[in-house]
Each structure stands twice: as C-alpha cells, then as structure tokens.
Amino acid sequence: MADRETLPLAGRRDEDLPGHWLLARLGKRVLRPGGLELTTRLLAAGRVTDADVVELGPGLGRTARDIVALRPRSYVGVDDTAAATQSVRDVVAPCGGRVIVADAASTGLPDGSADVVVGEAMLTMQNDKAKRAIVDEVYRVLRPGGRYAIHELGLTPDSVDTATKDEIRRALARSIKVNARPLTVAEWSELLKASGFEVVSTDRAPMALLNPRRVIADEGVLGALRLLKNVLLHGAARKRVLTMRRTFREHSDAMTAVALVGVRPE
Asked: What CDD domains is this protein classified in (predicted)?
C-alpha cells in the first residue's frame, strides 16, 4: 500500500476512510470520475500552456503533473489538506510552482491573478451553498477572459427525477463515506452561469472509475496490478472497494463524468 504517513487521514482505519483516500492508500493515482482521458481533454479546452494556472484540490498531484508538462507560465495549488501538499510541491517544483494550504472558497489569492483555474472532483463533494461559494471565489481570482475548467461527477439525463437523485446520493454516501452531491450536466452549467461565467465547452465520459479497463488505461498495467494486489491483501479495504464498485455499477445508467469550461467575460 501507499505510505500512509504521506496521505491525509493517515490514522484512520480503511473501513472509515473517505473513498478517494482509501483508493489512494491502495495505490490508485487517478481519482477523477472521467479518468485521464477526460482530464486531458479538459486541460486542452482550458488552454493552460503559457497561462497563470491555479488548481483547486490537487490531491496527490496527478493532474498537476499533466499541467506542468503543458508548460504553464505559473502554477499555484490550493489545498485545505496539509498532508497532501508536499507531494504536489515536489511535482510542480520544476516550473517554480507553489502550493498553499487554504480553503477553496477563500484562497487568499489576489483579484484577477489567474488565467485558468482547474478543479476536479471537488465541487461534487460540496453542498449547494459551498459549491456557489467556491465558484464565486474562482470568478474573483480569474482575470477577464479567464477560464474555469471543472471535471465532476454528473447525473444523466438532465430530466432525472428528484427521487433518483436522492437515491444515488444516499448510495454514494454509504459506499464512499462522503456526502457527494453530483448534479446533472444542465445543473453544472447553471451553477457556473449563476456566478457570471459563460459556458464555452461541455464534455462527457463514462463514470468508470473502478472498471478494469479504465483502471489499466489510467494506472498502466503495473499500476493496476499493484492496486489489485493491495485490494486482495487487505480485507477491510477489499470490502469497501467492492461496495463502491457495486454502487457505481448499479447506478451506471444515471451517472456520468462531465467536464465544463466557463469563461469570465471580458
């Protein structure tokens, strides 16, 4: 398993750990609902090359590595989990990047200081009020013409009824032990528009986080084997992973991964 001491919530038992940190402990590095492929398309749509980039919730730094490879003018990571920041600092050091410990809704960054803000799988974990606060903060930090690129868990179709939404949210809370609140694609778009953004790009991918084919695509063969070995060796973790996978499969028709880019008007 990954070195527990370098991960957030290192002292928590496998059975009590939020799902994304459990998967990280088991060795999974790509923790986004649409996988590396959707992240790659999102970064292309967000145009991070030669841009001043802020990433909210960089986690273990997997997307930060991709951003650095695209040669931004600057990089700032914002994470409220101090235990996660050192690994990201190591990743972004080659481009002179920095990581600060702060809340995504109150970053402390100057007004109009960024060209691009990237956030993945973090708005999903917030309630409606917190979602809006974060999006408002991003709008403040971006320059006119700046781009907010998000990669989140979505619900489909846009007409999905309230009862189904509530059922999925309860199932996710039980399996990943986080009160995830995914939105429909239309609702994600409206969230950005409510803070003043113009949505210029919408993309989707299957929500296949624990699908074997996706795991191999995201982690590589050796990474997938490492993950499988750790799942097999740790009983409590294995039970959790199987529960998560079952939940994702049961609701696969109503869940999707969505990536949007919103622009702050000039």
From this structure: AdoMet_MTases
